[in-house]
Inverse folding.
């Protein structure tokens, strides 16, 4: 492929603004698929978890052919917890397409991804998506985008961006809103803008080889794959090249080369500067390594991503049911899996603890860690995890904690309750904007620890009608104590299955998390106490038989349906002295110390030390 006939572009946006749907349309209209080919919706979301949740988790590459040009497209995640994926993929491209919802406008992640793109010196195309929404405010959103560029100190040439108006779900776009109702609209304006606005690659095929590895893949036939853009030079099958790691340089032979054609990886013999390629031949390659000439290696700066803000303890399951539901239960297997994840996920960190059966994992947020845990349980792992805790830094002798910039989009009748809850969590309001149509946008700066456990509460407070978005906002001095969960736990006192009769008589004591016939054990949490202290209960209690019978005495008891305790809800609910036991088929809540006497002893020791 001739170098000036290549365009490399990333699609960036806030979560749920339509990136993956737009890529679907671009793939279809470029003729990538056969006319009779069955194509899934959101074809780039290939992971099961992505399809289930409707979000992109891993950045992915594809390419389309248009009027003799090859356009390499990277679809990136929109959730703040997966910002590391965006940061590394921007190293592969020469420009970005920024999608903004025509109603919601720029949100926290929009600011984050645009800031990173401008810092990389990339050209930007702005697409105002979902212009068919009944609450679209197109002109206002365009002005907000301009304000965002100015606020982020965009260069004059970056602020001179084309604006396209689109409905990605229906696969059409226009440069002028007057044309929105014309028949036969397509995504051609977007293709045209990419060719005219995004510059071609600058590298030269005759220069010494330089490829920065920005992603890792795997092929059943050739093993580990390194994915990156050829910055300079040319790479061929059979070449001996240098792998420049952080602390050493290895030499490898290129066993196979692939490039992208649509969603497929197609084998090739040679790739020149400007194109994105996949290299096989080295099993120990990592994200951030540079592939260069064997005689004169020229390493590029390694990929640097923002530091994690949240940590969790991953431990071996030591409960009575350990090993009954999962196959991978040992500390060695858990450590191997976590170390493997570090190779793919540049924003995670891992630290060993004083004990051999527990590991500390650092991430960008609760969702990122929850996705990792969910993937592990689906692979057959059994483990225990602790409550997420924020990472405290000491700067100039003063403790600092991570802060979040939070944007609420809520009906105006809920402004009071949200503002009150933010106040108790040490948040302060930075902006308030009435969008009209009965909805208000509130912006707060809140300590990250104040948001742990708040999302479920927020949905309850706003009756499911509110939207909450966050982005990391740096470190600030500690804001003081924040009240945790107000209620205690209902804790089982014995091994055995729960019984409807026993649960029925516990319902006045609080909210029950389990149904009848669930296997329980001593120290397992079966519900939330109505008061602030923990209560040890017998959920296996059966009705005593007697000779006396009265009409209606043996009617079946009716239990309140228990709430579905998802992994994220469990992470929000538990306290520091509690753990989540995770197996392929169950999510259980438990006390850190199962024996009540040990719990009392530990509480006494903690209060004496405190």
């Amino acid at each position: 492929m001739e170098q000036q006939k290549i365009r490399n572009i990333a699609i960036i946006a806030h979560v749920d603004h339509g990136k993956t749907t737009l890529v679907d349309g671009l793939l279809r209209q470029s003729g990538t698929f056969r006319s009779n080919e069955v194509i899934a919706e959101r074809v780039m979301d290939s992971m099961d978890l992505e399809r289930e949740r409707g979000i992109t988790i891993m950045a992915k590459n594809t390419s389309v052919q248009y009027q003799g040009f090859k356009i390499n497209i990277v679809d990136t995640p929109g959730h703040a917890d997966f910002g590391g994926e965006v940061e590394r993929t921007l190293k592969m491209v020469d420009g970005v397409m920024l999608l903004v919802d025509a109603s919601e406008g720029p949100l926290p992640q929009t600011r984050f991804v645009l800031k990173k793109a401008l810092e990389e010196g990339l050209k930007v195309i702005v697409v105002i998506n979902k212009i068919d929404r009944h609450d679209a405010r197109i002109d206002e959103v365009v002005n907000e985008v301009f304000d965002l560029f100015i606020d982020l100190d965009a260069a004059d040439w970056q602020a001179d961006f084309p604006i396209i108006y689109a409905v990605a779900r229906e696969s059409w776009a226009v440069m002028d809103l007057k044309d929105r109702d014309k028949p036969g609209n397509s995504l051609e304006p977007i293709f045209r803008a990419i060719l005219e606005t995004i510059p071609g690659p600058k590298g030269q095929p005759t220069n010494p080889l330089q490829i920065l590895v920005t992603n890792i893949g795997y092929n059943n036939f050739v093993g580990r794959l390194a994915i990156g853009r050829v910055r300079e030079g040319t790479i061929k099958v059979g070449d001996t090249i240098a792998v420049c790691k952080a602390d050493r340089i290895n030499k490898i032979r290129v066993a196979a080369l692939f490039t992208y054609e649509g969603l497929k990886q197609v084998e090739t013999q040679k790739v020149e500067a400007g194109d994105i390629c996949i290299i096989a031949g080295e099993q120990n390659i990592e994200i951030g390594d540079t592939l260069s000439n064997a005689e004169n290696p020229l390493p590029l700066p390694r990929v640097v991503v923002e530091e994690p803000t949240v940590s969790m303890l991953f431990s071996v399951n030591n409960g009575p049911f350990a090993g009954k539901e999962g196959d991978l239960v040992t500390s060695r297997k858990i450590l191997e899996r976590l170390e493997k994840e570090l190779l793919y996920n540049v924003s995670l960190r891992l630290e060993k603890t004083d004990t051999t059966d527990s590991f500390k994992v650092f991430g960008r947020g609760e969702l990122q860690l929850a996705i990792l845990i969910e993937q592990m349980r689906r692979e057959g792992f059994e483990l225990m995890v602790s409550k997420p805790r924020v990472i405290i830094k000491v700067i100039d002798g003063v403790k600092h904690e991570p802060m979040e910039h939070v944007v609420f989009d809520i009906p105006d009748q809920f402004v009071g309750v949200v503002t009150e809850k933010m106040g108790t969590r040490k948040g302060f309001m930075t902006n308030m904007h009435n969008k009209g149509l009965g909805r208000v946008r509130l912006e707060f700066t809140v300590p990250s620890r104040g948001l742990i456990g708040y999302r479920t509460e927020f949905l309850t407070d706003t009756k499911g009608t509110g939207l909450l978005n966050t982005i990391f906002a740096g470190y600030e001095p500690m804001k003081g104590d924040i009240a945790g969960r107000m209620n205690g736990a209902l804790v089982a006192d014995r091994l055995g299955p729960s019984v409807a009769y026993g649960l029925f008589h516990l319902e006045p004591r609080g909210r029950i998390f389990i149904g009848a016939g669930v296997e329980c054990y001593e120290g397992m949490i079966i519900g939330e106490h109505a008061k602030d202290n923990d209560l040890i209960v017998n959920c296996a209690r059966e009705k005593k038989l007697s000779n006396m019978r009265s009409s209606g005495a043996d009617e079946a008891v009716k239990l309140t349906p228990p709430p579905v305790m998802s992994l994220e809800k469990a992470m929000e609910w538990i306290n520091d002295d509690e753990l989540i036991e995770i197996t392929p088929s169950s999510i259980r809540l438990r006390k850190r110390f199962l024996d009540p006497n040990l719990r009392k002893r530990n509480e006494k020791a903690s209060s004496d030390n405190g």
Q: What stands out?
A: The CA atoms of residues 95 and 122 lie 5 Å apart. The two ends are 68 Å apart (CA to CA). The first strand starts at residue 6 and ends at 13. The mean pLDDT is 84.
